[in-house]
Amino acid sequence: MKAKDIAKIKSAVRHFAITAAAVWVAKPDADWKAVLAGVVAAVVGPAIRGLDKADPAFGIVANKVEAKIKKVATKTK
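The structure corresponding to this sequence follows.
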């Protein structure tokens, strides 16, 4: 698995954990529908970011920047 894919998964897990905790802390006696809605909300953000080809961290732009950095790094060696 590529480092970029691992970073995407870590981002999604962080969003999931934070949103689930926020829903639970805000209303500990919440029914499972409210918790499920929070989980869905947590997954939507990273999913959209992963599909966005212009995203500077995970999209095509990131691939181009990474390639340029590697090219400059190999020239300086």
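The radius of gyration is 17 Å.
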